[in-house]
Amino acid sequence: MDDLLASAIAAARLARGIHLYYQEKGFAVDTKTGPTDLVTQADREAEAAVKAFLLERYPDHAFLGEEGGQDHEAEYRWIVDPLDGTVNFAHRFPFFAVSIGLEVRGRLELGVVLDSTRDELFWAVRGRGAFLNGRPLRVSATDRLIGSLLATGFPYDVNRDRENLVYFERALEHGLTVRRPGAAALDLCYVAAGRLDGFWEVKLKPWDVAAAVVIVEEAGGRVSGLAGEPYALGNRYIVASNGRIHAEMIAALFEGASG
User: Fold this and answer.
1) Residue 230 carries which DSSP code?
2) Which among 90, 85, 76, 103 has a CA at the least distance from the CA of 189?
3) b/e code 84-105 from CB counts within 10 Å (16+ = b)
């Protein structure tokens, strides 16, 4: 795994360089599924650079990226969001990252998330712990839901998909403090770092979470579906926490929901 990790980190730094270049130079913005679902030159060029870098070194690996989809199937699959937090990036709100996960024979084994503006490098390898810029990560010690700090996110068109508004309203009714920073990979890494106690979201894609799931779990946290079942890529619900508040969080927010 050492060589794979080094390659993932190098690829992430390539993507960060592209992010920073376009933040300085300026960039064109297009839309995908709707007027708030944005994509920029930086998204496309960062994915192309990461894909070329990784597949040159590992030509037998598969690649799944947000902008280009999946090229083929293989035992090793890189799962990449070249710019997580595109809307933030487009508005120069400094909370966006590149996320690179590696799945081996169906199991997530490695994750690298690089915060482009802060140059914070989160990474983990299954069984070897999680780290931030070389320092070990641990989730928070918060053991009660009340008083915890949570985060969530919403789909691009809330008027068409209002499901998470129900869970958000329940959080507010319980007197919980909730943030919505806008980049799921970083939200999850903040759970791993103890900056957040929990996170949930609906309808995220594999590239949004693949890398950070490993990082949270290796930092001692828990990641599940809506009913507490082990999280699997493709699950339309994700709940992450320090583990201590996990059951209470699910009971408070998702009781009666169909996962």
Assistant:
1) B
2) 85
3) bbbbbbbeeeebbbbbbbbbbe
Judge whether 60 and 76 are in contact, CB under 8 Å. yes
| Distance, CA of 86 to CA of 185 (rounded, Å) | 12
Q: Determine the Cα–Cα distance for residues 232 and 223; give it in Å rounded to an integer.
A: 9
First to last CA, the chain: 34
Q: Which two tokens stand for residue 256?
A: 């009666």
pTM for this one?
0.93
Nearest CA to 8 out of 100, 71, 84 is that of 100
DSSP state of 154: -
Tokens encoding 127 = 């069984």
Spell out the per-residue pLDDT of the chain, length 259, in tens. 899 999 999 999 999 999 999 999 887 787 766 666 677 889 999 999 999 999 999 999 999 998 887 778 899 999 999 999 999 999 999 999 999 999 999 999 999 999 999 999 999 999 999 999 999 999 999 999 999 999 999 876 655 667 888 899 999 999 999 999 999 999 999 999 999 999 999 989 999 999 999 999 999 999 999 999 999 998 989 999 999 999 999 999 987 665 5
